[in-house]
Structures are given as structure tokens and as C-alpha cells.
Design a protein that fits this description.
A four-stranded antiparallel sheet has the order 1-2-3-4. Helix content is about 45%, strand content about 20%. By secondary structure, it is of the alpha+beta class. The chain is elongated, with a radius of gyration of 21 Å.
Length: about 120
């Protein structure tokens, strides 16, 4: 990659990050990191450590996940995958319905022994 391309990408990233920052609470900001994601609950930053890129995700202002990647692009991809998992968990928590009985039936169907019921 030529240095002009890298400067252009960095500039584009800063423009995109500045648009994201308006959704981030002051306490959620990482002054040394590059903001790569912000929504109503999640904020993600990436930081260049010279030998790797370190990323971290905050949920409601609290640290929940970190990782490292070999490039900024792979960090963005990793954060995207992790956030997808957390978003699915959030949706499952808010979806009405209880599948407990169906899960127990499936477990019985494959031969899983039932736990003993507590004595009254």
C-alpha cells in the first residue's frame, strides 16, 4: 500500500469516527484509541501497538471484551463478529417465550439423564 493510500484511509477513518463520537458518552471515550463502532449500548476502539492492533469493546460504559489482530481491518472484522454475538444475545433476552420444556424434551430424546428434583 502506498503512503498516499494509507493517509487517505486514515483520513476516511477519522471522518467516520468523528461521526460516531457524537453517540459516545464522555466516560466511554478512549483518547488513545480509534473509535470503530458506537451504538446505543456498545462502543469499540482499536489501538495500534506497532506489532499488533489491540481492540476492546464496552457495553453500557463497562469493559466486556478485548482482543488483538494483525491489522486495523482485521480488528474491525473481529469486533464486528463479537458484536454480532452480543447483539444476538440481547435480542434473545428480550424475546418473549420460554423454550425450557422443548429443550428438556430434546435432551431426553438423545438420552441425557434428567436431574433429580429437590425434595420438598
Amino acid at each position: 500500500m502506498e503512503s498516499g493510500d494509507k493517509a487517505c484511509r486514515a483520513s476516511d477513518g477519522k471522518v467516520a469516527a468523528s461521526g460516531l463520537q457524537e453517540h459516545v458518552l464522555e466516560g466511554d471515550r478512549d483518547p488513545e484509541g480509534i473509535l470503530i463502532h458506537a451504538d446505543s449500548r456498545y462502543v469499540a476502539y482499536v489501538r495500534d501497538l506497532e506489532y499488533m492492533w489491540r481492540w476492546e469493546i464496552l457495553r453500557d460504559g463497562e469493559f466486556i471484551q478485548e482482543g488483538c489482530s494483525l491489522s486495523e481491518e482485521s480488528s474491525r472484522e473481529a469486533v464486528s463478529h463479537v458484536l454480532s454475538f452480543f447483539h444476538r444475545q440481547d435480542i434473545a433476552r428480550t424475546t418473549p417465550g420460554d423454550n425450557t420444556e422443548e429443550i428438556q424434551n430434546l435432551l431426553r430424546g438423545i438420552g441425557t439423564p434428567q436431574p433429580l428434583k429437590p425434595e420438598a
